[in-house]
Design brief:
Layout: H1 3-29, H2 36-59, H3 67-94, H4 100-127
Helix pairs in contact: 1-2, 2-3, 3-4
Length: 139
């Protein structure tokens, strides 16, 4: 698959997953009244599921998909979430940048950018492993 099509497909699946995660979180916190950690945990799983479906049925539709790939995909996404938390940890507690804006920049800005690179690499390398891809730009 040409690099640009793969990147666009991955980004599209990610945007849909983000929208599902955010919408579910807002609904679970608001009308449903769940606590923030439970709401975020459920919305994270839903977002991962949407992203996996988007990639398995779209971006990497010619590759093998199944329970094993979903489990690895979920682990890659947890690693991405940990990268975002690590960025906040370093910024907030290590560098002393404690404002809400600094937390947002470090977690949702820098952290999201680094996590997206990790997720893209993990998805194409560990989850879908290149089977069924037409061409590869990593080797």
């Amino acid at each position: 698959m040409p690099r640009s099509r793969e990147l666009v497909g991955f980004a599209t699946a990610g945007l849909l997953a983000y929208a599902a995660d955010l919408a579910l979180f807002v609904w679970l916190r608001g009308p449903v009244g769940l606590d923030p950690l439970t709401a975020k945990s459920l919305s994270f799983v839903a977002g991962c599921s949407v992203a996996y479906a988007g990639n398995a049925l779209g971006t990497y539709r010619h590759a093998t998909s199944g329970l094993r790939q979903y489990a690895v995909f979920f682990a890659v996404n947890i690693a991405g979430a940990l990268v975002q938390l690590l960025c906040i940890l370093v910024s907030h507690y290590g560098l002393g940048l404690t404002s809400a804006r600094a937390d947002t920049v470090s977690g949702a800005g820098v952290g999201m950018a680094l996590a997206t690179v990790l997720r893209f690499w993990g998805t194409r390398t560990l989850v879908f492993r290149g089977e069924g891809r037409v061409g590869s730009w990593t080797g």
